[in-house]
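hey so u asked for the seq, here:
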Amino acid sequence: ALTGYVAGSFVVVPFDRIKTLMQAKPGTTTSMRSLARSVFVQDGARGLYRGLDTQLLIAPFTVIYYSIYDELLKLQGDHPLAPLSAAVTARTIEVTLRMPLELLRTQLQAAEGRATLSQLLWEQRRKPLSTWMQGYSPTLIRDVPFSAIYWFAYESSKKLCQSPRVSSAARL
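ran it, structure tokens below
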């Protein structure tokens, strides 16, 4: 999971940066391509990858999420709703832990000029916890139902695909 997350980050971050810049300036009619070109001309490849450092700091939370999900699933045994409750709990914990980094990543991606992670940390350090958690509710509303549906469908499909012939052959 960690390797896929890190590799995927190198592909996704430039698109995420451009999306964030477009959303930060509503009403502008700049196309994605021209905005990406402008960022590249102004800041080089580093400009397109602004926020990658924070994205990579978020990577361990993916491992935490999968670990919590697996443990909760095992603890609940064969209960039919186990994937739902395990996914909801694991994702809620993961979002809660990663939210401050998510905020910093978004601020980095939306910043104009040459903002750095250390500058943002310096500015943010004296602010109350509530400012570190900005966007928490929408992130939960986006991520938790997705995880619940995904894992419930995955685990249900996995059970359907296990035929009695395969499991009896495996015992031999």
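The radius of gyration is 20 Å. The mean pLDDT is 90.
lmk if thats what u needed
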